[in-house]
Amino acid sequence: MRTQDANYADRSKADTGAIATHEGRVAGDGRDEPCSEASARGGAGLPDADGRPRPLLPDRPAPLSQPHGTPGSVVRRITSIVKRLRARLTKTETSEMLRCPWPKPRHAPSLALHFTPTDRLMLAYTGTMAGLALTLHPRSAKYRVLALKHLGVAGGIIGLAALHRSRGGTALSFVRHTYSLVLLGHLHYWGCEMALVLCPRFLDREVIRLDRLVFRKDLHALLPRRFPGYLTRQIMNAAYFSFYPLIAGVFLSTWLWRRDRMEESVFTFSLCMYSHFLFFSLVPVVGPTHLRETLFPEPRPLMERIVKHAVDHGSKDGGALPSSHVAGSVALTGIVGRLFGRRAMRRVGTITSLLSVSTVYTSMHYPIDVVAGLGTGIGMFKIGPSLHNRMLLLSRRPAEVRELPSPPLLKLAHVHRQGMLLSHGTESRPTKRAG
Question: Is the pTM of this model over 0.70?
Answer without folding.
Answer: no
